[in-house]
Amino acid sequence: MRTKVKARHAATAGALTLAIGIPAIALGAGTSQAQSATVINVSHTHVGYGDRVAVTGTTSPSAAGQQLELEYAQNGSAWRRLATTTAASNGSYRLRAKLYRSGFLRVATPAIATAATAGALTTASSGVPASVSQRGIVRSKLVVGSAPRNVLGSRPVGVDGRLLPQVPGRRVVLEAQSGRAWRTVAHARTRAGGRFALRFVPGGLGSERLRVRFAGDAASARTAAPSGLLTVYQPTVASWYSDGAGTACGFHAGLGVANKTLPCGTKVTFVYGGRRVTATVDDRGPFVAGRTWDLNQSTAAALGFGGVATVWSSR
Residue 128 carries which DSSP code? Predict the structure, then answer.
C-alpha cells in the first residue's frame, strides 16, 4: 500500500506545503517508508519561535491503544521525543508541541529505533512504522527595545538585544529607513545567550525609524523587529517673542516658532532643560545674527525657556 501524505497549507501568506524544501535525505526517507500505514498532517509549515504546531493523522487500526510519539530532529541529528499520545480505536491521533528551531517532524511508536537520524528510518520487528519526515520552518525571534531614541549631536547610537534561538555567531544588522527604503547602518554577531550590541553614529539631523533584521539560517527563518524612532538634535541659539500680531505664514500655531528659511508648517522638536517640545514654523525670524529660532510665548513657556540661550533642535 502506497504511503499517503497529507500536508495542509498554512492560512498565512507565503506558507508552503511541508513537502517543499525537504532535503534529498528526507525525500529518500519517504521512499523507504512507502509501506508505512501512518499518515501525518501538520497544521502549519511556518511558525514563530516557541509557537505550537498541531499534528493529526491516522495509523493502522491494529495500533489502537498503542503509544505514539511526535519526534523532532534537525538534518543529520538523532530523533528526540516532543510529545506522546495514544492511538484511538480507529487509528486516529492528535499531538501538539512547541517548536524552537527548524527541523523535521515524524510520528512513530516507541518500537521504532529513535537513534536513527533525521531522514533515515530504522524499521523494527514490532510496532507501526514511522510516518514520513515532514519539515517545519521556525522563524527566529528578536528581543529588542522599541522606545524612541534621542541623540544629541554626533554621539553614537546603541541598540542591544537578543536573537532566539540562542546561537552565537549569527549576523544581525541594524537598518535605518530613508523614505521607503531601508539602509544598513551597523552589523554585529551574536554572543553567548544570543545577545548582540549594535553601534553607529548618525549622519544627519531629524528623525528616522530603526529596525534590527536577521537574514535566517538552517536553524530558523528570517525575521525583523522595530527598534524605535531615532531623532538627532544639534545645538542652536534661540530667543523668544510674543506673537500676538499677525505672522508671516498667515496662521498662529499653538506652539509656534519663527525661522528664516524653513517652509511654513514644518515641525521642529526642541530639547531644553530636560524638556522636549515639538513646535510648528508659523513666522519668519529672528533677524539677529547668530540666532536660528524665535520661540513664541507658548513654546518658550513649555520649555521653561527665557531670554536668549542654546537649545537642541531637530532641524
Answer: P
Chain region(s) in the chain for CATH 2.40.40.10:
242-313
Q: How many helices (H) and strands (E) does the chain have?
A: 2, 21
pTM of the model: 0.71
Query: Cβ neighbours of residue 215 under 8 Å, at least 6 residues apart?
Result: 171, 173, 222
Report residue 297's pLDDT band, with 50, 70 and 90 as the boundaries.
very high
> Which phi and psi angles does 63 have, rounded to 5°?
-90, 5
Domain 141-231 bears CATH identifier 3.40.50.2300: no
User: What are the start and end residues of each CATH 2.60.40.10 domain in the chain?
Assistant: 24-138, 141-231
Task: Dump pLDDT digits (tens) for 212-236.
Answer: 999 999 889 999 999 999 999 999 9
Superfamily of structural domain 24-138: Immunoglobulins (2.60.40.10)
Write the burial class of residue 113 (CB in 10 Å: 0-12 exposed, 13-18 middle, 19+ buried). middle
Give the pLDDT score at 19: 29
* Sequential DSSP letters for 40-76: EEES-SEE-TT-EEEEEEE--GGGTT-EEEEEEE-BT
- CA distance to 54, 102, 104, per residue, from 73 (Å): 17, 9, 5
**242-313: in CATH 3.30.2310.20:** no
